[in-house]
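Q: I have 250 residues here and want to know how they pack in 3D. Can you give me a structure?
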Amino acid sequence: MDFQDYQRAFAAHIRDPRSAPRPGGVPARRMRVYNELLFNNVQGFLLACFPISRQVLGARKWRRLARAFFRDHACHSPYFWQIPDEFLRYLQDEWVATEDYPAFLPELVHYEWVELDLETSAADASLPAHDPAGDLLAGRPLLNPVLRVLAYRYPVQRLSARYRPSEPPAEPTFILAFRDAEPRVRFLAINAATAQLLDLLREHPGWSGERALRALAEAVPGLAGGDLSVFGAELLDLLRAEGAVLGSLR
């Protein structure tokens, strides 16, 4: 057999020992070592990032899913630390869910993956000049660059082996995820208006806090009123105290 053909057959058997025949000349015992070593390494990286998903599915279904990913997905990165990224891409773009897997699984996997993404982010390596104690209404609020505003159909922060809803609730779940000064990744449940305000500040970094609040009032019926500035100032101060807002730009 041509050497490259032999390599392909060798790799195919490692990916799918049940369907791809073991290439000739390799003892079965040694082949099993390769099979178990590579699959267990990949599964180890997945377990480290997705412990809740593993608990929700149980050992058998989790292993079946991990094996399907190992068998079917062509990774775009050679780095082990990016295996969770590839797993998320597989679930979102390639995986065909069956009835015995919960419909919320891709959202739960994404929610768990966000923690790794924020832990390893270098987006705050260089910050613009800002005043940590600056006026967040008159000034331009500086959002923490290691921050995500997340929206899910399911309440992902509550999912567990005991809580597995079969249908999404009527209202979506909004979560603010960010890395604080400790540094540690934090998740805060927020409402739709807070999520929209944060999106406005992110999309329009030149806006003052007051300008963003006016735009929010125009977009969300019922928010306009004399108390909006007071509410907005309290909310922005709270976000600053938590570490999601770093101050006002100079």
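Q: Anything worth noting?
A: The longest strand covers residues 173-179. The chain has two domains: 1-101, 125-250.
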